[in-house]
Amino acid sequence: MAGFRLPCLKSLAVNVSGISARVSAGSQHLQQFKRLRNAVHPRLMSSTASSVNLSSERINDNVVYSRHEDCFLHTQTVVQRFFDQASLWPNHTAVECGITGRKYTYDKVRMLARRFGSSLVRMGFKKGEVLGLVLPNLPEFPIALLGAAGVGMPVTTVNPIYTAEEIARQMQNSGTSVIVTIPQMADTIRQVASMCPEVRRLIVVGGPEEGFVSLLEMFQDSGDLFNDNIEIDHFEDIFVLPYSSGTTGLPKGVMLTHSNVGSNIQQVVHPGTSRLMQTTSSNVTDSFQEVYICVLPFFHIYGMVAVMLTGLDHGAKLVTLPRFESESFLNCVYQQHPTMLQLVPPLVSFLGHRPDLKLEAFHRLHTIFCGAAPLGPAAASKLIERLGKHDLLMQEGYGMTESSPVTHMSPIVNNKIGSFGEPVSRTRVKVVDLNTGESLGPGQEGEMCVFGPQVMKGYYKNVKATEETIDSAGWLHTGDIAYYDEQNQFFIVDRLKELIKVKGLQVSPSELEDVLRRHPAVLDVAVIGVPDDISGELPRAYVVKKGGAAASKEDIAAFVDEKVAPHKRLKGGVVFIDSIPKTSTGKLLRRELKSMLLSQIS
User: Fold this and answer.
1) Domain count across the chain
2) Contacts with 154 (C-beta within 8 Å, 6 or more apart), sequence order
3) What sequence ranges are listed for the domain AMP-dependent synthetase/ligase (predicted)?
4) Phi and psi for 506 in degrees, rounded to 5?
5) DSSP letters along 307-340, please?
6) Mind listing the pLDDT tens digit for each residue in 416-465?
7) Contact between residue 47 and residue 75 where contact means Cβ atoms under 8 Å apart
8) Do residues 495 and 554 both lie within one domain?
9) CA dihedral 145, 149, 153, 159 (to 10 degrees)
10) Cα gap 332→321, rounded to integer Å
11) What is the extent of the structural domain holding 540?
12) 428-432 and 446-451 as β-strands: parallel, antiparallel, unpaired?
């Protein structure tokens, strides 16, 4: 551990993916859903695989089934699975800091995760208590995640650029008991703890910091209290609790079980879907190992599952970057020679337009996977041409926080740029008429709904939102308007859901409206996303001022700036209007504002 240091984190702005959520427990509707879910997750599976074939259960016409052979659904927890896999290549590097070079082998990650979990138990934490990770991408992130989950503690993850108020809101809602962070965030987390009486301990990666326990000290624990036989229900117990706005409203905790996430890992690495190769030998010197540059944040479901956990499942080397900075990212690529790159559209565009790329650094690259937002065909073609690799697989995918996240990936052969792909293994998809709910055929536009083992258990302590998102037959309603073609490849057309996507990051209009209503000059307000070539969308506030109020647009924007993370700021502007369009019951009609905006643009 000598020479341990953290990179400077002046700005943790990252280009990431945003995603969505659904289910809790309690009502007859949810009991029905649980029965449906258990049909997909039969408990009478062997320890290695399930024999259930989703294709044998056709629900109705115009349902698209995955064409891929059923993937294995392990009955192990995510942590047990990692420990078993890590034993196959113990001496290979599992995770390395792309800034400092600090690294851990698979055997070391396994050992330190056990020690961290044991130390949490020694501190008095119990199964079911929530641990909060307020961290950028660091080698210690997966260690803390696996260690806490291994002793039955669900983990909620938070963007470290959030303000104290934003973090506290999530900690309060999730009932978090202990928070892990970095020295640069220590003052902010002290403020958070003062607002959250349930938080009993603060842990720092690095340090020392007054009032914090050092993670390095916890790594000295004997590990004897990490119990391999702890009773964790694979199908019911929560593995992670990320937050998502879903289709509408404030961010909500998304309950993802070990089964949800474990299933999605196997769906993503399915050989019919991915070129990802497992590390071929325990011998470091003569084995192939995938190399990932991990710039997409682990606190986000895309980075956590589709990058970090799938990579660890197959023995990849994860090279972490705490945030995107063009030069550090490129230097990391040049040093590490990645085999796969997981990106979002702005990063694809960045690489495609970079005139001085050292092309030899990409000689091992076989796949670029892009998610979070639609990738324009021109941007994809530009990068393939720029790299000169016509055998490069440029894959797109679709997912939501509520689906762990991946439901679609473009096929390895005959993938269509502009499509986000076809259903992954064990997944059904349908497109339904917005008025009748009838399942539609190829070429017809409607709301896309998905069904599979990766669909969340539900929203944490929010039965109402769960029931509004997952119907009584167990279908997750995505809030996205889509269609599929004759080859069962899917295309996004529009969005029903109200959330705004800024460089792939979710922004809840309701959350910003709550902040704006605290301004003394604001009588009424509505927030929508306005199109932007670089960010995708930017938040814009339509404000009705109180009579006689003298506040300027700049005053109101500055008021919001102080209270939210940078990607949530009103960079789309503030517009003063006489009234906000609403229904007869007082519900905001954001779509009318959107229509008005689009007509002005055209």
Assistant:
1) 3
2) 128, 130, 131, 237, 238, 239, 240, 241
3) 82-460
4) -70, 140
5) IIIHHHHTTPEEEE-SS--HHHHHHHHHHH--SE
6) 877 899 999 999 999 999 889 999 999 998 999 999 999 999 999 999 99
7) yes
8) no
9) 30
10) 9
11) 508-601
12) antiparallel
